[in-house]
Amino acid sequence: MSILIKNGRVVTAAEDFIADIYIEGEEIVAIGRNLDYPVDKIIDATDKLVFPGGIDPHVHLDMPFMGTYSSDDYETGTRAALHGGTTSVIEFILQTQGDTLHNALKEWQAKSLHKAVGDFSYHMAVTDFNDDVAKEVVQMIEEEGITSFKTFMAYKGALMIDDGQMVQLMKVVKEHGGLVTVHATNGDMIDSLISKNLSEGNTKPIYHYLSQPEVTEAEASARFTDMLYYTGCPGYIVHMTCEGALNAVRTATMRNQKVFVETCTQYLMLDASLYEREDGAKWVMSPPLREKKDQDALWVGINQGLIQVVGTDHCPFTLEQKASGKDNFAKIPNGHPAIEHRIEFMYSEGVRKGKISLNKFVEVTSTNAAKIFGMYPKKGTIAIGSDADLVIFDPSKQHTISADTHHMNCDYSGYEGRKVIGKTEIVLLRGKVAIEDEKCHLKAGDGKFIPRGKTSLII
Asked: What dihedral angle (degrees, nearest 10) is formed by the CA atoms of 138, 63, 333, 280?
């Protein structure tokens, strides 16, 4: 199929200009003014923004957690992502402790390959590192196109590895051109605070927040950067929430160290006062929401280049699932629905309010993730030869966020009633119309697995 997008305001991480885009098959073939090709479809993008499809490198689809599963699977989750302008996601495979990485990969392939509507890739979570797993790490990088490895400094007994295992993993990953990512919170300290609060009868959602104070994230972030510095391994901190953790990375730059950092839309927009509400369980996630001063610090960190990516940590659970912790905050499944609204939130809250530029908006929602995770320039930009993953966006259309209209498989929204300016109108995935007239025109199985290479950002 051939498509010609006419008269759009084309925005990349580096450029901003009016142009036409000619697409043939899956790729962009030409970019210029007044292009004239015989095509199957013409899209008039006058007064609209045209930018590369979003890449969300932090989602959890059909993930086993706390005795249940996240409520979006690969079909509903990637379809909702497309509705919001995110064309590719990177999800987390979880190694079962005592089992192999390859068995985990097979389990996640069965969940995804025939169900994904949008494109996807995997991070491999290493929860039990040993000599055999070290060999599998090399195979993942060299044979499977999985080049990023998730680690946890919390969730002892299920996901957490110790610092010795972390360092050994970093050495192997560095040698073979991969990247180590981390959930950076001090698990031992958090576990002790949870036990203390429960023993004192403190069971409400606010104690989820109070059991994970800022210092638990700041300390772990600093420790992770030190291990990266010692091993020389490239690293990436996921879902950073607070000023203290950001300062750990800021300090690392004083020794000329580069650490990649991601934050999420919720940490830029919501704060911990929500935990005091009767329905506070809706916002129980780890790390928890923080204070308004942390929101300010994170926006500044984006503009300073200390934070390169804004993801979602999309991990939805229904109200019924959340209710399993009504008498014990430690039993509330952690996570909230977010995959659909990231692009629109970052435009409305960021660009419209003057917190970030349009180019920075594209950088943190698409381009940097593509570069860090080895998908660039096929993904994450608008260039000849790149995949035709494109969003046609109305920058002035106002709409209201609601569970009644979103496409995520979740019966509530953490942003119910919030008015947003800027709306995704048409989305192309590899040259096919994925979203138009608020309908999805792709089906389960149309999404492709994206094998990835080394990071292309300078470390």
From this structure: 100
Q: Which residues of the chain have pLDDT under 50?
A: none
DSSP 140: I
Which residue reads 């300290």 in tokens?
189
CA 395 to chain centre: 23
Q: Are residues 58 and 76 in the same domain?
A: yes
On whether both 263 and 331 belong to a single domain, the answer is: yes
Does residue 276 sit in the same domain as residue 347?
A: yes
Q: Is residue 406 part of a domain?
A: no
Looking up tokens 């180590």 gives 180
| Cβ atoms 10, 50 nearer than 8 A | yes
At 436 the pLDDT is: 98
* Bond from prior residue into 287 cis (ω within 30 degrees of 0): yes
Residues 350, 432 share a domain: no
* 227 in the same domain as 335: yes
List pLDDT tens digits, range 442-458.
Answer: 999 999 999 999 887 76
Q: What is the pLDDT of residues 371-380, one digit of tens each?
A: 999 999 999 9
Which conformational region is residue 300 in: left (phi greater than 0), alpha (psi within -120 to 50 degrees), or beta? alpha
CB 18 within 8 A of CB 4: no
> Is the distance from CB of 362 to CB of 53 less than 8 angstroms?
no
For the chain, count helices (H), then strands (E): 14, 19
Assess if residue 383 is contained within a domain: no
Strands 148-152 and 119-125: parallel
In a domain, 448, yes or no: no
Q: Does the residue 459 lie in any domain?
A: no
What are residue 317's phi and psi, to 5 degrees?
Answer: -135, 145
Strand 390-400 and strand 419-429: the pairing is antiparallel
Range of the domain at 93: 53-372
* Total domain count, the chain: 2
**CA angle at residue 153 from 151 to 157, to 5 degrees?**
95
**Which CATH number do you get for residue 42?**
2.30.40.10
